[in-house]
Design a protein that fits this description.
The protein is of the alpha/beta class. Among the domains are: 7-152, YqgF/RNase H-like domain (Nucleotidyltransferase, domain 5, 2-Layer Sandwich); 154-189. Helix content is 44%, strand content 14%. The chain has helices spanning 7-20, 61-78, 95-103, 113-123, 131-143, 156-189, 198-202, 206-218, and strands at 27-33, 38-45, 49-58, 82-87, 107-110, 148-149. It has a 6-stranded mixed β-sheet, with helices on both faces. Helix 4 crosses helix 5. The termini are far apart.
């Protein structure tokens, strides 16, 4: 069972880190570029030298254990006790590694994606981009203290955050399915201006049937016969406007300007 410090202690620890990240030298700094299958890290002694320029971490429990063994070896070589890891949030791929490191007493912090992208231009002004360069960039930002707090809520707060994330993803997926039905699948079944036959509509899933009925209600009403009051748009010049309605908009260059009236001074 992984044991993680409560957020109150981690917040206090993060404030202490922000105060001396730019000056303290007796700690290991690790910048980890997050990926789906294999992470790449750089390990350095703070403000001194780079120890591991390219350290590969498999996104598996065995890979995490091998990484921790390497960090413990570097700790014994340098005589340091603190380890601070900086990760760039990439979806949810970083959560497993961050939880593993936090359970072993490592301080995990976040680096803003926008700040990392801007700082990359100052380090290497080329179009080349690799995982090793990204890990080096994260280490540079960590040494300068440009990091954020990594929140790990537990209990009901963690469950609520997970449910909210799932709800947002479900809403995005539902909107994408509606657009695909309206723009691709529905026109293939018949003219979009005509309702589907009842037999065909009954064979569709209930959700799609609801979308079709909603689209039918939202369709614009048929045009009124010419000459009726509703057929005359209110934005035409000379047409009558309803009381309280705003006047039709006209571009500034077409508005008539009243001539300037000069008064004589007696």
């Amino acid at each position: 069972m992984l044991i993680i410090r409560p957020n109150a202690l981690r917040i206090k620890r993060f404030r202490d880190l922000k105060a001396d990240l730019r000056t303290k030298r007796d700690r290991l700094l690790v910048g980890i570029d997050i990926a789906k299958r294999q992470h790449v890290a750089q390990v350095r002694l703070a403000h001194t030298r780079i120890l591991d320029k390219h350290l590969e971490i498999a996104n598996t429990p065995a890979g995490f254990a091998q990484c921790w063994t390497q960090l413990e070896q570097r700790q014994r070589e340098t005589g340091t006790r603190e380890i601070v890891c900086a990760v760039e949030p990439t979806g949810t791929y970083h959560q497993a590694l961050a939880t593993f490191l936090e359970s072993h007493g490592v301080d995990v912090v976040l680096v803003c994606n926008h700040v990392a992208a801007l700082n990359r231009r100052t380090l290497d002004r080329t179009w080349g981009k690799s995982d090793a360069k990204d890990a080096h960039n994260l280490c540079e930002l960590l040494e300068r203290g440009l990091v954020r707090f990594y929140s790990l809520p537990d209990g009901p707060a963690a469950a609520l955050r997970r449910l909210v994330r799932l709800l947002r993803a479900a809403r995005v997926e539902r909107a994408a399915c509606q657009v695909r039905w309206r723009n691709t699948l529905r026109p293939a079944l018949g003219p979009a201006g005509e309702p589907l036959p009842a037999t065909l509509l009954g064979q569709l899933p209930p959700a799609v049937q609801a979308w079709e009925r909603t689209a039918g209600r939202a369709a614009s009403p048929p045009p009124s016969p010419p000459g009726s009051p509703s057929s005359v748009p209110t934005s035409w010049p000379g047409s009558r406007r309803r009381r309280g309605a705003s006047p039709p908009w006209r571009p500034p260059w077409s508005r008539s300007r009243r001539p300037c009236q000069r008064t004589r001074c007696s």
